[in-house]
Structures are given as C-alpha cells and as structure tokens.
Amino acid sequence: MRKSFFHTLKKDICRDWQLYIFLAVPVIYIIIFAYVPMGGLVMAFQKFSIRKGIFGSEWVGLDNFIKFFSSYQSGRIISNTLILSLYTIIAGFPIPICFALMINSLHGRRFKKISQTVVNLPHFISVTVLVGILFQLFNTRSGLYGVIGQALTGSVPPDLFGSPANFRHFYVWSGIWQEFGWGSIIYVAALSSVDPSYHEAAKIDGATRLQRVFHIDFPSICPTIIILLILRMGSVMSIGFEKVYLMQNNLNLQASNIISTYVYQVGLAASGISDFSYATAIGFFNSLVNMILIVTVNAISKKFGETSLW
User: Fold this and answer.
1) How far apart (Å, rounded) are the C-alpha atoms in residues 209 and 207?
2) Residues paired with 58 in a beta bridge
3) Rounded to the nearest 5 degrees, what angle is found at the Cα of 121, between the Cα atoms of 116 and 123?
4) Which of 61, 88, 107 represents a domain boundary (last residue)?
5) Residue 271 CB neighbour total at 10 angstroms
6) Of residues 116, 114, 118, 134, the one with CA closest to residue 126
7) Beta bridge pairs of residue 59
8) Could you tell me which of 248, 220, 301, 219 has the C-alpha nearest to residue 262?
9) Looking at residue 18, what is its pLDDT?
10) Which domain does 88 fall in, by range?
C-alpha cells in the first residue's frame, strides 16, 4: 500500500510538475521561516550563551518561565495583551460582516464596486504611515485636533497619546478603519454564492429586504464567520508588534506594553542586557496559549455546531 502511494505520487508529480513547482515555493518558505526556527525553542529551557551556542548552553529547566510569572510586570503585560486583543475582536470582527451584508444589499453595481475599492484602499497603507497620520492629526499644536482645540478653548488641548486609556481606542479603531474593507472581501465572496432563487421566493412570500438579510444572507455566511472566528481566537495573544511599538511612549506604557514589545525589550537589548532564553520562554508561552485557545474554540464549535477546522 505504501509503495502504491509513492508510485501514485510520483506519477502525479511527473504529470503536473509545473503545479508542484509553484507549490514548492510556499512550502519551502514555511519550512525555512516557520518550522526550522522551532529548533530555537530549546533556548527557553537553557541559560543561553552566544559563546557556547544552543548545544553547549546550560540547561535550567523551567527557571525562565518561573522568572516571568514571578515578575511584577507579567500580570500587567498579559492583561494588556488580552484586553487589546479582545477589544479588537469584539469591536472589529462584526464590522466587516455588516459591511458585506450592506454591500450585498445594494442594487447599483457600479456604486458597489466604487465603495469596495474606496474602503479597501486603507489596507495598503503601511503601519508606519498610518501611525504618522495619527500623530499629525492629533498633534496638540499643529494637528487638526490641536488647531480646533486651541480655537475653541484658547489653550493647548491635552495630549491624547499620553493617556493609557486613549492608546487602546486609537490602536483598535485605527486598525478597524484600515482593515474592515479588506476583511469584508471573503464575506462578499461567500454571499455571491447564495442562490438567487431563495431571494425570489422570499420576495413572493412578502419578505422585506431586512428579513431576507437575516434569514437568507446571514445564515449562508455563518460557516465562514465561524471558521474565521476560530482562526482569530488562535491569535488572541499575538498582537502586531510594529504598530504598538510605534504608538508607544513613556506616558502610555501602562497600557501599551504587551508581550511582543516586552519580548523585544528583554531579547534585543533595549536596556543593554540581552536575555535570549527569557525572551524565548515568553514567546513560547505566548504560542502555547494561542494553540490551546484555537484547539478549545474549535472543539466547542465542533460539539455545538457542524463547522470546525478539523
């Protein structure tokens, strides 16, 4: 049976070798940048020394994990990561769905295309440019916020980026503005597969447009919504480093210091002392929590519904 499998595989490769060449590129990329670096996880259980290398460094077991959980910063860093991620999911996940349902309900084909193009454009703005735009708009002296504030009050308004609470709102809602159009593409594609005869039958029965959205359109994209939600829950602890780091300052550090920025601080010598083992242990813990979450959410979805990743 094993010989038969390899014989069939060899035959398929010879027949469709061009497709396998295309497939080889992403496979090689994933192996090099996703699987090979996993070997470095052993540093989480070592007192890593660059001079001795991975194979010669001293083994310390779970000491690096104990050090992290014993740190006064660990609770705040984990809570900041969770709050920021859950805030993003709760506020941002439904918006692309609502936008897709709204776009699908429009009759003007040209207007639909223009609307989708306009809301997709912010996705192509780099994170650095986006943060720069925010800083310019909300500059207390030369920005639109500062000019209007001075005109209304006669004094310089407070710095919004210096507030920990405001940092979360800026991070989440700027991200929603940038990504909701791009995120709606998959839902629009799923809605395009809905059989028009369902809508025609509902019209004959006297259903309003809103009723058809709730009883035809929304149920048709529910499996897609569940799959994307499961995938999103699998990255709850993984928040993009770049945007948070660019928006971070000493005044909002209480809310902006998350796992990814803390790993950078302790692992890449922001303070002049690199601790690669400690940073690796924190990253390993982060990935482990993400794996547990995605497996748990997938199991719940499989138990109570018919949609799951596996």
Assistant:
1) 7
2) 47
3) 110
4) 61
5) 9
6) 134
7) 46
8) 248
9) 87
10) 64-304
Q: Are residues 187 and 240 in the same domain?
A: yes
The DSSP-derived string for 278-297 is HHHHHHHHHHHHHHHHHHHH
CA–CA–CA angle 53, 73, 93 (5° rounding): 95
Question: Which pLDDT value is given to residue 270?
Answer: 53
Please provide residue 137's backbone torsions phi and psi, each rounded to the nearest 5 degrees.
-65, -40
Q: Which of 220, 223, 236, 188 is nearest to 309 (CA)?
A: 223
Q: 77: how many CB neighbours lie within 10 A of its CB?
A: 19
Largest distance between two CA atoms of the chain:
83
Assigned token pair, 21: 């060449």
Region label for 308, one of left (φ > 0), alpha (ψ between -120 and 50) or beta (otherwise): beta
Same domain, 144 and 30: no
The helix (H) or strand (E) run that includes residue 213 is none
For residue 173 the two structure tokens come to 């809602």
Helix (H/G/I), strand (E/B), else coil: 183: helix
The label of the residue with tokens 């982060």 reads: 286
- Where the chain has pLDDT below 70, the residues are 1-3, 269-273
Of 37, 61, 85, the residue at which a domain comes to its end is: 61
Number of CB atoms found within 10 A of residue 24's CB = 10
Q: Which amino acid makes up residue 47?
A: K
Contact 301, 230 (CB under 8 A): yes
Q: What pLDDT does residue 300 have?
A: 84
Q: How many CB atoms lie within 10 A of CB 7?
A: 10
**Which tens digit of pLDDT belongs to each residue from 211-262?**
888 889 999 999 899 888 888 888 888 787 889 999 998 888 889 999 988 8
Tokens 């943060």: give the residue.
Answer: 131
Asked if 149 and 272 sit in the same domain, the reply is: yes
